[in-house]
């Protein structure tokens, strides 16, 4: 509506006709031409590969201003949440819309701690996978099979079941992730310890000694918590859009999140954090020549991208990357020797941001550029990096799935196409 209360519209003219589209305004950010009557009124569809110009829903969860480098969860700037909150608080905020009071936070935390253990059959299932399988493949499988282990929590129409599935997923994902890691390095998995906090216990279950004892490094605990906060949601990214698409068919929360884990695995999305580290190792092994690597990236024939750079939405510094870079400096400066991969990343960034190829295309470091050097310093192998992204993104996936479930405007996701194949031809005609 405009200020005088009239509906704002845009006139679409095309050969042979015209159509009026409402122009919708959100709280802030892009306005939207509403095209939902377009096909029925004009017989035409929109063509938008990668949905770069398409808003698939209205959402109240996360706001991004990609030009200004702004990210807010439920209205709170990411920098304030990073400075003052915890991952559990942020998870509650993202899912329920408001920060929890102390009683709500205590109850939430207790529910998660009480449900962290895995049933013996699920542990046996995880133990049956090949030890060298990628942890993301196992994570997606484990989340999917939760629909089998908790079959009384799969009905998306039942709010109590949805609340229960929400708690079970949040509670068990760190245990599953730690179990997968321990198997991959040939160590017996550890049971959760409900006297510890969510992040502390995840690190203990991952790196603890054989009897479960662990000296937790306070800075690593805080760093892990902060990294999870910074990954908690990012509006309609590829994996969240996947969770929504799968959920739109009224599939279970587990099936939808499992699909999201698989979408996250790709190197253009969450898999980029692993790819960045592998790229830095490759540059180091070739003698640390940043200039020739950048020359290769700029040569389109090489099909090489500067991993951890560029973003569909940010045309400015990704605000998460700024936070993570500061954290990486804090952690790596404690080491006796400078971290060669962090030094390389800093040199790559400086060179890229002084190069018109990157500045003209507004390519800046994204969330994945510096996170890997921190995970590496903590002791995680590269294959676990995207699993850590998934642990962080879980509240966002859940929040979007739940929001869509209650959205009266939501419909099954079913895009159109512009058909460019053969016109009708006959099997026996040639
Ligand atoms: N290195 C070199 N060139 C790039 C890069 C890059 N990382 N990213 C984009 N470009 C170029 C691209 O070649 C194109 O150039 P031209 O206009 O000459 O054809 C231009 O920039 C626009 O690129 P695009 O592919 O149309 O951009 P997109 O919005 O479709 O893709 C992206 C976004 C994130 C997939 C892409 O920037 C990329 O592949 N980055 C590297 C992978 C990465 O770091 N992914 C993590 C993304 S952030 C966290 C997450 O989503 O999980």
Automatic annotation (TrEMBL):
Pfam families: Citrate_synt (PF00285)
CDD domains: EcCS_like
Superkingdom to which the source organism belongs: Bacteria
Catalytic activity: oxaloacetate + acetyl-CoA + H2O = citrate + CoA + H(+)
Record keywords, A-Z: Acyltransferase, Transferase, Tricarboxylic acid cycle
A GO term, aspect molecular function: citrate synthase activity
InterPro entries: Citrate_synth-like_lrg_a-sub, Citrate_synth-like_sm_a-sub, Citrate_synthase, Citrate_synthase_AS, Citrate_synthase_bac-typ, Citrate_synthase_sf, Citrate_synthase_typ-I
Pathway stated in the Swiss-Prot or TrEMBL entry: Carbohydrate metabolism; tricarboxylic acid cycle; isocitrate from oxaloacetate: step 1/2
GO cellular component terms, A-Z: cytoplasm
A biological-process GO annotation: tricarboxylic acid cycle
Similarity comment text for this entry: Belongs to the citrate synthase family.
Database matches in PANTHER family: CITRATE SYNTHASE
NCBIfam families given in the database record: cit_synth_I, PRK05614.1
Protein name: Citrate synthase
Organism of derivation: Streptomonospora nanhaiensis
Organism phylogeny: Bacteria, Bacillati, Actinomycetota, Actinomycetes, Streptosporangiales
């Amino acid at each position: 509506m405009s200020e005088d209360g009239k509906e704002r519209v845009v006139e679409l003219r095309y050969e042979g006709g015209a159509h009026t589209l409402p122009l919708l305004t959100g709280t802030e950010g892009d306005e939207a031409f509403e095209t939902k009557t377009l096909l029925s009124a004009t017989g035409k569809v929109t063509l938008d590969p990668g949905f770069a110009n398409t808003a698939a829903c209205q959402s109240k969860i996360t706001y991004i201003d990609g030009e200004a480098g702004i990210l807010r969860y439920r209205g709170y700037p990411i920098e304030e949440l990073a400075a003052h909150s915890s991952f559990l608080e942020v998870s509650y905020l993202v899912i329920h819309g408001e920060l929890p009071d102390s009683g709500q936070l205590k109850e939430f935390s207790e529910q998660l701690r009480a449900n962290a253990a895995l049933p013996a059959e699920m542990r046996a299932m995880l133990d049956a996978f090949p030890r060298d399988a990628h942890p993301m493949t196992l994570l997606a499988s484990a989340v999917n099979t939760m629909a089998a282990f908790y079959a009384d929590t799969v009905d998306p129409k039942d709010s109590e079941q949805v609340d229960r599935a929400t708690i079970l997923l949040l509670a068990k994902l760190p245990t599953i992730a730690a179990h997968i890691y321990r198997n991959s390095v040939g160590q017996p998995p550890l049971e959760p310890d409900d006297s510890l906090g969510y992040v502390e216990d995840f690190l203990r279950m991952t790196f603890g000694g054989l009897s479960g004892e662990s000296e937790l490094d306070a800075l690593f605990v805080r760093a892990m918590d902060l990294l999870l906060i910074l990954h908690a949601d990012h509006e309609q990214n590829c994996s969240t859009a996947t969770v929504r698409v799968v959920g739109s068919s009224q599939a279970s929360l587990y099936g939808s999140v499992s699909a999201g884990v698989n979408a996250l695995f790709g190197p253009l999305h969450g898999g980029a954090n692993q790819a960045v580290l592998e790229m830095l190792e490759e540059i180091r092994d070739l003698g640390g020549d940043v200039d020739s690597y950048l020359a290769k990236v700029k040569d389109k024939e090489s099909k090489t991208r500067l991993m951890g750079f560029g973003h569909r939405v940010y045309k400015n510094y990704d605000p998460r990357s700024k936070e993570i870079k500061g954290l990486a400096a804090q952690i790596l400066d404690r080491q006796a020797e400078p971290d060669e991969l962090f030094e390389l990343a800093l040199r790559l960034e400086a060179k890229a941001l002084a190069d018109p190829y990157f500045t003209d295309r507004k390519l800046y470091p994204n969330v994945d550029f510096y996170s890997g050097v921190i995970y590496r310093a903590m002791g995680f192998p590269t294959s676990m990096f995207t699993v850590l992204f998934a642990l962080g993104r879980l509240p966002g996936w859940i929040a979007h799935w739940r929001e869509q479930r209650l959205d009266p405007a939501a419909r099954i996701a079913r895009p159109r196409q512009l058909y460019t194949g053969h016109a009708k031809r006959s099997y026996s005609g040639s």
